[in-house]
Specification:
Shape: globular
Structural class: mainly alpha
Distance between the termini: 15 Å
CATH class of one domain: Mainly Alpha
Order of helices and strands: HHHHEEHHHHHHHHHHH
Strand content: under 5%
Strand order of the largest sheet: 1-2
Number of strands: 2
Radius of gyration: 20 Å
Length: 356
């Protein structure tokens, strides 16, 4: 039986919708990504020795320059983690459960099957697709969720839960699918990557949040510190791309076919997983604000940890690193397009569930 929602209740339901849009810089993020990729390739041609110079700075097989950039990309996302938010799972578990199923069952299996089908004989590209499909996003989805005017409480709960589950599930999933594919990988480096690029930023983020809130107050943390660190993350992202493509420039120019080849399973994977999430949220009778967050988080990937792990296992100038970077290249415009698709489907009354 339909539930009537009064105008005052509707206003309450919308109280956490975003008050502003993305900045001009954030709106054109796909363009800046493309510019940085091109600049990196040009840099590799103008300064031929840059690849060897950057690649030589390593600790325990991890590139220090890339490690610093990736840490700066990950740390801001960890400032959103609030263990107390997990208590809210009992209020409306259905969209959270659907997202977890998509993130940890549907997407990894789809990615593995597509990689195995379209990339036979290209082991590093197969690993790149497995890394991307086995790592649900915990950072940029917060931006896409705001843009889509989804349920931000659900967004925070889901990203918090994803961050915790990555620590436990990411390495075993990658090990499982590479094992099935008979692709040897350094499992110790895989585990180290998870703890260096997820575990350490997570602990530091939780400590920083608690310390700053106690010292300066929640308002200062939310409106001053976190936005500033968020801007630093975008700069780190673009810097990482310049470095990656300066290291991979010759690899790209010598193997442009590989870029197109890895794009096939990546794009098909997005299409299949997005389609699945749209259908399942409709059949589950979710309302728009819950459904759109479920679709966005359930269809995205954690390209930061995928890139970091590929670099740790194969090196900064590897085909695997290039494959995971292509995942980033495609994900940003696709997720932005998904925001507009969700708003269009709302106008068409695609989701008929009652607001929570």
């Amino acid at each position: 039986m339909p539930v009537e929602v009064s105008s005052s209740e509707q206003s309450e339901l919308r109280r956490d919708l975003p008050a502003k849009d993305l900045s001009t810089f954030e709106k054109y993020l796909p363009l800046w990504i493309a510019v940085c990729m091109v600049f990196g390739v040009i840099l590799s041609l103008v300064v031929p020795g840059i690849s060897e110079a950057i690649d030589s700075w390593q600790i325990a097989g991890i590139s220090v320059p890339i490690g610093i950039c990736l840490f700066l990309m990950m740390y801001p996302a960890m400032l959103n983690i609030q263990a107390s938010e997990l208590r809210k799972l009992r209020r409306n578990p259905k969209p959270i459960v659907l997202t977890l199923i998509s993130n940890w069952i549907v997407a990894p299996i789809v990615g593995f099957i597509l990689a195995w089908t379209f990339l036979p004989g290209n082991e590093q590209l197969i690993v790149a697709v497995i890394l991307l499909s086995s790592s649900p996003c915990t950072a940029m989805v917060l931006v896409w969720g705001y843009l889509a005017e989804g349920n931000q409480e659900q967004n925070v709960v889901n990203t918090t839960l994803n961050t915790i589950t990555i620590l436990v599930l990411f390495a075993p999933l990658v090990a499982l699918f590479t094992g099935i594919s008979n692709i040897p990988i350094n499992r110790m480096l895989l585990i180290i990557s998870v703890f260096v690029f997820i575990g350490f930023p997570l602990v530091l983020g939780v400590i920083t949040r608690k310390s700053i809130v106690n010292w300066k107050g929640k308002d200062w943390f939310e409106n001053r510190y976190r936005p500033a660190v968020g801007n630093l993350a975008l700069i780190a992202l673009l810097t990482t791309l310049v470095v990656l493509f300066s290291l991979n420039g010759m690899v790209m120019l010598e193997n442009p076919d590989l870029l197109l080849l890895v794009s096939v399973p990546l794009l098909l994977g997005f299409a299949i997983v997005v389609g699945y999430n749209l259908i399942i949220t409709r059949f589950a009778k979710l309302a728009y604000r819950e459904a759109t967050i479920t679709v966005i988080i359930g269809s995205s990937s954690h390209f930061e940890i995928a890139i970091a792990t590929a670099i740790s296992m194969y090196g900064v100038g590897s085909i695997a690193a290039l494959g995971t970077t292509m995942g980033l290249f495609w994900e940003v415009p696709i997720m932005l397009g998904l925001v507009y698709l969700a708003k269009y489907l709302r106008k068409r009354d695609f989701w008929k569930g009652n607001p929570m």
